[in-house]
Amino acid sequence: MPLPKPNTGExxxxxxxxxxxxxxxxxxxxxxxxxxxxxNIQWESVEEENEEESEDEEEDDDDELEQLQTILxxxxxxxxxxxxxxxxxxxxxxxxxxxxxxAFSEKIKSQYPEVWKLGGNILGNEQYKHLYTIxxxxxxxxxxxxxxxxxxxxxxxxxxxxxxxxxxxGVMAQIKWHMVGSKGLKYMQDLMNEEIDKRYGGDx
Length: 204
Fold this sequence. Notes:
Distance between the termini: 50 Å
Shape: globular
Oligomer: single chain
Number of strands: 0
Largest sheet: none
Structural class: mainly alpha
Number of domains: 2
Helix content: 55-70%
């Protein structure tokens, strides 16, 4: 069966959530990290097609799956963390991306739900929960569960793609993924405080 593709007008997070829960995807790529990587490839391929409307390329589904599986098999030979070709221990400490302060994110989550939901309410919330547990419980690398390791890997891959998103929704999503974007921590905090002012009358 063909891999899921974004529908016309479908937002990225909704597509990624749908793609990662697809029955065929789960069977072909049982590991969450694998599905996330493949779904990202699907999203990016459609974006490229939209940018180059004159280009008309179609690949056989079986060939596509075979190519993706080959890529993933190569990735599995080393940790490839924090990026492809590296072989460091999978941990937040070894991430290329600075960790966002938990106190600030928790303030938004508990006091300003309208701002919190700007960053998506499915995949982002799931990631926030797993990464929050790792950080607040000070879980050692040796004691990380498979799901927590996947959460760290997903954060690294997601951050690489979204570090340049400077819009309010993008910055709120970065906060949910516990990462500091390219414009730095102060920019993110100032932007979120502006959003709080807009929606809550400056009560921050």
